[in-house]
Specification:
alpha/beta; single chain; 15 strands; 9-stranded mixed beta sheet
């Protein structure tokens, strides 16, 4: 056989393999596109989440069905305490929507940093029998250090935080000059299951103000609250915002971070990051987007509106992670470029009829 023909066939095979890998990762919706649905009560979350996912699927022309890895991740947020964690009703509705698309509960991974916070939020069982689950779905607390890969980390010269990583106290006392390149103290390890084990993952943040970040929303939950040793970045807004943008831009993390789903059932506009019911408000709406920057800009505007109404100073200037992330192609914070597409709430009776069905993997 002609060598040129063999070389051509090899190149074609490589291209097909690369194409099939890309096809296995769901497509991200256009930058600036936000899907919105009104949900007057958590009882309507099932229909609301299904409506949002169908809106996304129609926009990109592809269904969220199991692919090569046959697992999906949900990155929750329990950082601010039980009163301001990812709503359980939203978690349950998302699980049901993924089941309708062919994912079993065994294959839906619930990820967050703190075992204690997950337990307080009602996600992690109080009695741990070695295989913690939430209604059949595996729960992966990152602080157990079982879900980090030593080869995958965000490297930063900042010293570790004593609050989050007390095991580094003795080394930190010796001074930052001893933190040589590659030392564990300067690494923030990534959640390996979201890199290597899932077809895609959905970020499910909450909304609260934060002294260092300004807005603790979609970007922060996908990055700082998704790695080890993150508290060290919160000393000032410059280090925090830079870390948020740079972690979000890691290709292996970003390519499968397909969607961000947030409920405005409760959000806090001042006094964060700890939950304070006095400064919390509620709106009957859910948002879904592939653009975390756009979502955070919408949240930022709402928080400042509430601050103005209640006589508090505004969050100003605009949080630095917005322009940093936008400059890396992660989204837009230009209000004129953000398009909120309002969807009509689907019929819950139709969902009940389809709940028993399943879809085959491609």
């Amino acid at each position: 056989m002609d060598r040129r023909l063999v070389a051509g066939l090899v190149c074609l095979l490589c291209a097909l393999l690369a194409s099939s890998r890309l096809d296995a990762i769901p497509t991200q919706a256009p930058i600036g596109m936000v899907f919105e649905v009104q949900a007057s009560s958590p009882r309507h979350y099932d229909a609301a989440v299904e409506t949002l996912l169908q809106g996304y699927e129609q926009a990109v022309g592809r269904d969220l069905v199991p692919a090569e890895r046959k697992q999906v991740g949900l990155k929750l947020n329990t950082r601010s305490g039980k009163g301001l964690s990812t709503p359980l009703a939203l978690v349950r509705a998302t699980i049901l929507a993924l089941e309708r698309r062919g994912y079993s509960r065994d294959s839906i991974l619930l990820v967050d940093y703190s075992t204690h916070a997950l337990r307080q939020a009602g996600i992690y069982p109080f009695v741990n029998e070695g295989d913690p689950r939430f209604e059949g779905c595996p729960v992966l607390p990152l602080d157990t250090e079982r879900y980090y890969d030593p080869d995958w980390f965000y490297d930063s010269p900042l010293p570790p935080s004593m609050q989050q990583e007390p095991q580094y106290l003795s080394s930190a006392r010796r001074g930052t000059q001893e933190l040589v390149a590659g030392a564990r103290e300067r690494k923030s390890f990534l959640a390996a299951p979201l890199l290597h084990e899932v077809d895609f993952w959905i970020n499910m943040p909450t909304m609260v103000d934060d002294p260092a970040l300004g807005v603790d929303g979609a970007l922060a939950n996908a990055t700082l609250w998704n790695v080890s040793n993150s508290q060290r970045f919160l000393a000032n807004d410059a280090t925090a915002s830079a870390a948020v943008a740079e972690i979000a831009a890691i290709p292996e993390l970003n390519e499968r971070m397909v969607l961000h789903l947030i409920s405005l059932e409760r959000y806090q506009f001042i006094g964060g990051p700890n939950f304070n019911a006095r400064y919390s408000v509620s709106e009957p709406r859910l948002w879904l987007s592939s653009d975390p920057v756009a979502l955070d800009r919408l949240l930022y505007d709402r928080m400042n509106r509430q601050r103005m109404l209640h006589g508090f100073p505004l969050i100003t200037p605009i949080p630095r992670q917005f322009p940093f992330a936008a400059s890396l192609g992660l989204g837009t914070y230009d209000s004129a470029a953000i398009h909120v597409r309002q969807l009509k709430l689907g019929n819950e009776d139709d969902l009940e009829e389809s709940a028993g069905g399943s879809q085959e993997s491609p």
